[in-house]
Amino acid sequence: MKTSLIILLLISTQNFSLFAITDSILKLKSDSTKAQITISSDRPTVSYSSTTVPKHSVQIESGFGFETSNNEYIWIHANSDILIRFGLSERIEFRFYNKLNLSNTKLNWHTDIDTRSFSLPDYGFKFNLLHEKKFLPEIAFLPTFVFKYKENDNLNISLYNLDLAFSFTKSLSNRFSAGYNFIFISRSHSLVTSVNLIDNLQLFLEYSRMRTRFRRLYHNLIIGTSYQPISDINVDLSVQFNTLSPSLTINSGFSILMNK
Question: What digits encode the pLDDT tens for the residues 191-210?
Answer without folding.
Answer: 999 999 988 899 999 999 98
